[in-house]
Amino acid sequence: QVQLVESGGGLVQDGGSLRLSCAASGRTFSSYAMGWSRQAPGKEREFVAAVNGGGYSTYYADSVRGRFTISRDNTKNTVWLQMNSLKPEDTAVYYCAARSSGVLPRTSTSYDYWGQGTQVTVSS
User: Fold this and answer.
1) What is the rounded CA–CA span in Å between residue 29 and residue 41?
2) What is the DSSP annotation of 12-25?
3) Rounded CA gap, 100 and 33, in Å?
4) Shortest CA distance to 80 belongs to which of 72, 88, 90?
5) Can you give the pLDDT at residue 75?
6) What are residue 62's phi and psi, to 5 degrees?
């Protein structure tokens, strides 16, 4: 089992940047594929980005590809989401998630463990 704690959310202006962090517990962090999903008010949770256990394969939602970058450091049990060129429509609660299988997740329903979420608000 793994526990996830996100940090780094906040308020940023349109076009700005934020870096989200997710610290994971456990000794087998590298065996988990990791990802980020988000949920805006009144909307369903949506997939944002994912990285496989080794950190060499990534996948992004079309809406964030080219603006967001997911990365991980297995020696630090941490995964990050660098978000650039933020837009008001990126406003949401962002959740870190882990998948027991090392297979790269491509949907928000592909995860086994979730963090508590961190709020990102982009003002216009």
Assistant:
1) 31
2) EETT--EEEEEEE-
3) 7
4) 72
5) 95
6) -60, -35
What is the chain's pLDDT, residue by residue, as a tens digit (124 residues)? 899 999 999 999 999 999 999 999 987 899 999 999 999 999 999 999 999 999 999 999 999 999 999 999 999 999 999 999 999 999 999 999 999 987 888 888 889 999 999 999 999 9
Residue 38, both tokens: 């988000």
Distance in Å from the first CA to the final CA of the chain: 40
User: How many residues are there in the chain?
Assistant: 124
In terms of DSSP bridges, do strands 92-99 and 118-123 run parallel, antiparallel, or are they unpaired?
Answer: antiparallel
Q: How far is CA 19 from the centre of its chain?
A: 10
For 38-65, b/e burial (b = at least 16 CB within 10 A) is: beeeeeebebbbbbbbeeeebbbbeebe
